[in-house]
Fold:
Amino acid sequence: MRVAIFTETFLPKIDGIVNTLTYLIQHLERRGHDCWIFAPEGGPENYAHARVIGLPAHPFPLYPELKIVPPHLDIEDKLHIFQPDVIHVVNPIAIGLIGMRHARQLGIPLLASYHTDIPGFAERWGMGLFVEPLWAYLRWIHNQAALNLCPSTVTMNELALHGFERLGVWTRGVDTERFNPGRRSMAWRSLLSDGDVDAPLLLSVGRLSLEKRVHWLKPVLDALPGTRLAIVGDGPRRKELEELFAYTPTVFTGFLEGDDLANAYAAADAFIFPSANETFGNVMLEAMASGLPVVAARAGGPLEVVSDGETGLFFEPEDCQSLIDMTRRLVLVPSYARQVGAAARRWAESRSWDSVLDGLLQDYQSLVHLPALERQAA
Structure:
């Protein structure tokens, strides 16, 4: 099977979408399938066995790290060379329109996957007037696909309420060999705690951007004297956050990946995830595989990842005091935190990437064998 993937974001940018795509590309290679990636220019020419075709792009003014590819580009000649059996548009906004147009023109089965709560982010950014137009735009895009996959049932149900059609779930997996409690080391704990290895150590991992609400961790630290915090990641708000957390027991590591990231997870005592607009939350699964209890919002994707009181604790999405209270439960009773973390690890062990991605390949195959008339109706 030959799969053409159109994605709005790819390497060298690192986020949950890109991480998922790298696992998918590697899985396609292991299963003997061919893959071409169409992405904004600036990335590698190849990843694993896949050819990466960079398309001309311009930074999006409101979010410069997001590069927008003009949707009118014609790449039919490249698709004629590759002859894909299926086209997969990932988080379609602009480059996804190119994939959709060519799928329609060439009669190629089309699958779309929804990853980011863009309307929710717009509301967090103070642009509430754009929320309904954004829903209308995303609905128009996705309803051109023969199948739309979401990372969780919660997200799928929300999309159904907004008029999205032909919905299914493509969940996420985790590499439990890399993300493992056995990586716990005093060297990394000392690094993340600035040498105070005996203090409770909280961990946050993710993009340092407004919608992730990392600033909510400041009152958590203020309410828990003697507790330390490590913030892993980078993004447009890093400087502002470093100023906010100045003179607090906080270490900013910048971006980490691979074994360094796994070591950072394993060195901590609890994972705190303040964002309330997550369609899934890959970092939660990595933390749980590393044996950490998770504190997450009772909203969106975390509802399907965390079992409240067993593998983590929920806080009320718009209540910072609730976040403080749940974190305090773990900090004040370390034995309970370890119990919850052990249960989180056991649950994560059941979420292998192979089983998750084999399910996606079955969806590809189902579209390849879908009668042409049904594809046109979609």
User: Anything to note?
Assistant: DSSP finds 16 helices and 16 strands in the chain. The longest strand covers residues 34-40. The chain has a mean pLDDT of 93. Residues 330 and 337 are 5 Å apart (CA to CA).
